[in-house]
């Protein structure tokens, strides 16, 4: 709402009937209005006295220059920012003199908007969008021309020419929720400036005051094609402070002339300001102390918000009154300075419409309360972040104050980590879009690695969001919400020259930039380019169907249109490797794979259901190794968790808790088995024995529910091992001592399920020792322990050796040859480390910065590798993660070997091979589409429990 001068409160309250309404708009408080009237009356009186004493006399000791400065401030207070212009600029304000113009030739271009003449309705449906062929000319940090066959002779002679070789070219990706720079990686106490936790309401702090240009993650993020990020303060506070939009070009190596946060600002003119607020669990958990300080509840949080806005509204009113009076009587006649208050200045600017508000709110009550605040205090909100439940309540979003409903900034499928994240849907983006709202995909870096934020958009597409909307969700949509609609997000003349050329369709698995320009300057001199053939484009017109949450159970099935099968059904009578196979399932078992004429008849007689696929894939089941599924329902809620502590060694099988939402989703995404160990202290730590179980089981006594009571013995030697008085050296030594004691021990433990009993099995080689560890140094120490213990076993007359498995393994590639020589395998967890912790700081983050990642180096060295889950929500993504290894591996492994990373290899590592082979006939997954690629989905799962679960289309 623009506040023109003539809208301001008049000198005389009664003269203009407009003004009481305006005040009611700020705060429906009669009392305050009376106070304001009294103030005004006083000002009138004071000015009258000044005027009558004559202009030359000095009524007060106020400084005239200061009063004049204050009057300047009035005009700033009254100004309402507009989106900065794009077209019409000769040069980008961020352009650095001397940088040469560039012609990018032969690109397949995504402009970011539909062709001219497309109606808004058609555009929303994706009509008019396409990849087009052409060249892009950039100069002075701007895109100047996007045309077919730009003639290089018409350009200045110093123009650099870059051949895109037909590859995909998009605008730079925009991540609208990042903490990069303020939450430096690897995370250390000294570099964490995410939240100012001195108070719950800190609108007065600014992320720019903590942005560290040396945070290497800023570069890692860019290597994924992200050129722009909104750097927000954390969500510990209800009002966390000001946020800033930066570009990921830092210092001289990136073509800048200084290394500073100011130099990174996307808009050096700072037209818009940004603020971060947060509802829900965090603030009450961080601040609430019963009887001492709030908020302890969402009720208290709303009070904190309203109280803060009330202070800001009061400041705004005082200022407006002063400015109006100064206009009327002449500023030199004022007898006080403009009321200013740094504490409430930012919130005042929010109420003046100068600040883009971004608020973290997950649940319906949070969303509803915050929308209520926007209407009470009359300010718009640009986006709800972590907006998990927005898809359930589009109408609440639509009643937010302002011209346009807030967007929803989301993860594609990261959920269940706390109560407010328990309800969520991977279809949220699609549903919001269908309701006329805007989904935006974000990283919350370091929660997710922003390097791969485009993968969030790819998954959103996988979950049914139309292709053009998925690409918009990380380009044009965040550009618009940030107020950069005319500058960022499109490949059009007048836009900033932030450009990415990709090695494949950006929404395909493993898409990686080959070169990136920021403000017209190429960011890499020698980028590593993956050996990849230019992939066929994704067919963007194809509607990706979504399947129902709940499957139906069926015993007889005929599946037609299977193009590729990775299962090895022994009873399958006919050959493999042919297209368009038919699979017949009788009583939950695959009885035939091929033409199957006879079996089809039997199945038809038995009333089989038919699933006809266009491009069907059948695979072995996927296995979730190393997560907490089966032992936990909501990560942060103790009541839902098995629990764990460094002092406790226990068996996972004794803590199994089945039939949870996590397990239902595991099954839905083809993960029919999991191997989970009790945790040591935190998620992704392990101690005790892991249990191997089937994710579809209702309880542990169901036939087939548990396939391995004790799959491996686990210890944790990552940074968590350094708890209390324990050092890493002590933890390694303690493990060695326990193993040597097990070698020496010649008495049978009285409790066959005790730690020492399991360790005796470990030193006899009948049970694996799985160690959670990232650091190459600690892995080296473990390899020495293995040598010592193996020697002791030989001295004691044994002939076994320890079977060791590394879980985590961010730095394992550094000792890849040594691991291979010791026959020690690695479960990469996460698959792609991004150096979040000190002991992962040497991890490889991939092209274009590094030549491959840990998985490439390990496979090349001959180390047996599997993919683990460092967080439980990843159960949905195992196929795509394996796909990324396959696609970016340069042909090292084939598709079948990629699938082994999330199945067979886990069993090989643990010495449970016979178990892996067992399930083929009754444990399988049927996909429409290639499970290693975006756009596939599970249609049926043989869960190994006697029936097949069929997922029907919505
Ligand atoms: C950096 O470049 C900008 C834009 O060309 C210029 O205004 C500024 O003075 C330069 N700073 C330094 C330290 O050279
Ligand atoms: C564009 O690149 C493709 C793929 O490399 C190539 O086949 C084609 O000849 C190129 N076209 C031009 C005009 O260079
Ligand atoms: C990356 O590593 C692979 C395997 O070691 C090697 O063949 C390839 O040449 C390397 N590529 C680059 C660009 O260094
Ligand atoms: C695949 O096989 C089924 C059953 O044998 C047949 O009906 C269908 O037409 C075939 N489709 C193609 C594309 O060959
Ligand atoms: C057990 O080992 C100890 C020490 O190695 C030895 O003295 C003792 O005789 C052994 N006892 C048995 C029953 O083998």
From TrEMBL:
Transmembrane portions of the chain: 31-48
InterPro entries according to UniProt: Amidohydro_3, Metal-dep_hydrolase_composite, Metal_Hydrolase
Keyword Signal applies: no
GO molecular function, one term: N-acetylglucosamine-6-phosphate deacetylase activity
Keywords: Hydrolase, Membrane, Transmembrane, Transmembrane helix
Annotated Amidohydrolase domain residues: 464-520
Record flagged with keyword Hydrolase: yes
Stretches of the chain forming a coiled coil according to its record: none
Gene3D superfamilies found in the cross-reference section: Metal-dependent hydrolases
Domain of life: Eukaryota
Any one GO BP annotation for this protein: N-acetylglucosamine catabolic process
SUPFAM superfamilies to which the protein is assigned, alphabetical: Composite domain of metallo-dependent hydrolases (SSF51338), Metallo-dependent hydrolases (SSF51556)
Protein name according to UniProt: Amidohydrolase 3 domain-containing protein
Protein's organism: Xylaria flabelliformis
Lineage, top ranks: Eukaryota, Fungi, Dikarya, Ascomycota, Pezizomycotina
């Amino acid at each position: 709402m623009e506040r023109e001068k003539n809208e301001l409160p008049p000198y005389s309250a009664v003269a203009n009937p407009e003004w009481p309404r305006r005040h009611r708009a700020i705060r429906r408080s009669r009392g305050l209005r009376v106070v304001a009237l009294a103030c005004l009356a006083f000002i009138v009186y004071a000015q009258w006295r000044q005027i009558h004493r004559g202009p030359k006399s000095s009524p007060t000791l106020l400084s005239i220059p200061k009063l004049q400065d204050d009057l300047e401030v009035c005009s700033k207070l009254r100004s309402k920012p507009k989106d900065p212009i794009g077209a019409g600029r000769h040069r980008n304000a961020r352009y650095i003199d001397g940088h040469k113009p560039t012609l990018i030739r032969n690109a397949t271009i995504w402009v970011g908007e539909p062709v001219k003449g497309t109606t808004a309705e058609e555009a929303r449906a994706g009509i008019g969008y396409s990849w087009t062929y052409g060249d892009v000319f950039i100069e002075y940090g701007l895109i100047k021309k996007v045309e077919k066959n730009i003639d290089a002779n018409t350009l200045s002679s110093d123009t650099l020419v870059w051949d895109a070789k037909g590859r995909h070219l998009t605008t730079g990706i925009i991540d609208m929720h990042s903490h990069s720079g303020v939450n430096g990686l690897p995370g250390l106490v000294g570099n964490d400036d995410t939240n100012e936790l001195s108070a719950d309401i800190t609108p007065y702090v600014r992320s720019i005051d903590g942005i560290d240009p040396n945070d290497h993650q800023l570069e890692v993020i860019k290597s994924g094609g992200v050129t722009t990020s909104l750097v927000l303060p954390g969500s510990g506070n209800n009002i966390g402070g000001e946020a800033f939009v930066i570009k990921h070009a830092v210092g001289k190596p990136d073509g800048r002339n200084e290394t500073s946060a100011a130099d990174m600002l996307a808009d050096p003119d700072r037209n818009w300001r940004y603020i971060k607020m947060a509802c829900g669990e965090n603030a009450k958990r961080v601040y609430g102390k019963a009887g001492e300080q709030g908020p302890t509840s969402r009720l208290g949080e709303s009070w904190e918000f309203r109280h803060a806005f009330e202070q800001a509204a009061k400041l705004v009113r005082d200022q407006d009154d002063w400015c109006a009076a100064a206009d009327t009587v002449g500023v030199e006649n004022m007898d006080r300075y403009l009321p200013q208050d740094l504490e409430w200045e930012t919130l005042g600017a929010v109420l003046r419409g100068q600040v883009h508000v971004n608020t973290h709110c997950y649940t319906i009550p949070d969303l509803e309360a915050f929308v209520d605040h926007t209407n009470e205090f009359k300010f718009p909100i640009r986006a709800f972040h972590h907006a998990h439940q927005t898809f359930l309540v589009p109408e609440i979003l639509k009643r937010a104050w302002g011209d346009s409903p807030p967007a929803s900034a989301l993860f594609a499928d990261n959920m269940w980590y706390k109560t407010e994240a328990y309800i969520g849907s991977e279809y949220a983006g699609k549903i919001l879009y269908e309701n006329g709202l805007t989904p935006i995909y974000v990283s919350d870096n370091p929660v997710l690695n922003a390097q791969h934020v485009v993968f969030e958009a790819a998954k959103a597409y996988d979950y049914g969001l139309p292709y053009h909307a998925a690409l918009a969700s990380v380009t044009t949509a965040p550009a618009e919400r940030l107020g950069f609609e005319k500058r960022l997000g499109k490949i059009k003349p007048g836009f900033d020259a932030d450009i990415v050329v990709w090695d494949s369709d950006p929404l395909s698995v493993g898409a990686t930039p080959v070169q990136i320009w920021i403000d017209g300057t190429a960011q890499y001199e020698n980028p590593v380019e993956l050996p990849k053939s230019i992939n066929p484009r994704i067919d963007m017109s194809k509607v990706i169907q979504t399947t129902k949450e709940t499957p139906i159970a069926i015993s007889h099935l005929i599946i037609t249109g299977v193009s590729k099968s990775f299962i090895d059904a022994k009873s399958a009578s006919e050959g493999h490797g042919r297209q368009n196979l038919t699979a017949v399932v009788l009583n939950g078992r695959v009885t035939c794979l091929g033409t199957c004429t006879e079996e089809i008849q039997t199945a038809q007689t038995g009333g089989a259901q038919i699933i006809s696929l266009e491009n069907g894939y059948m695979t072995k089941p996927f296995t979730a190794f190393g997560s907490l599924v089966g032992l936990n329902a909501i990560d942060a809620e103790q009541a839902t968790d098995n629990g764990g502590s460094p002092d406790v060694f226990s068996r996972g099988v004794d803590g199994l808790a089945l039939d949870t939402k996590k397990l239902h989703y595991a099954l839905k995404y083809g993960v029919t088995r999991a191997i989970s160990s009790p945790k040591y202290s935190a998620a992704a730590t392990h101690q005790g024995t892991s249990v191997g179980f089937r994710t579809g089981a209702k309880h542990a006594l169901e036939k087939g529910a548990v396939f391995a009571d004790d799959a491996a013995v686990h210890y944790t030697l990552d940074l968590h091992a350094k708890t209390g008085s324990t050092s890493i050296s002590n933890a390694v030594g303690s493990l060695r001592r326990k193993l040597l004691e097990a070698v020496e021990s010649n008495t049978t433990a009285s409790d066959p399920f005790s730690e020492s009993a399991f360790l005796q099995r470990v030193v006899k080689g009948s049970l694996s020792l799985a160690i959670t560890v990232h650091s190459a140094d600690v892995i080296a120490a473990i390899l020495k322990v293995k040598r010592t213990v193996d020697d002791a076993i030989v001295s004691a007359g044994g002939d076994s050796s320890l079977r060791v498995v590394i879980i985590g393994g961010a730095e394992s590639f550094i000792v890849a040859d040594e691991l291979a020589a010791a026959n020690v395998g690695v479960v990469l967890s996460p698959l792609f480390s991004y150096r979040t912790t000190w002991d992962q700081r040497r991890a490889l983050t991939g092209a274009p910065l590094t030549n491959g990642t840990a998985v490439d180096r390990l496979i090349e060295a001959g180390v047996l590798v599997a993919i683990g889950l460092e967080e439980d929500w990843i159960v949905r993504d195992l196929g795509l993660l394996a796909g990324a290894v396959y696609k970016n591996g340069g042909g090292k492994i084939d598709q079948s070997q990629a699938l082994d990373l999330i199945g067979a290899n886990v069993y090989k590592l643990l010495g449970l091979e016979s178990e892996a082979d067992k399930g083929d006939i009754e444990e399988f997954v049927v996909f429409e589409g290639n499970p290693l690629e975006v756009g596939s989905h599970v249609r049926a799962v043989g869960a190994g429990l006697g029936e097949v679960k069929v997922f029907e289309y919505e």
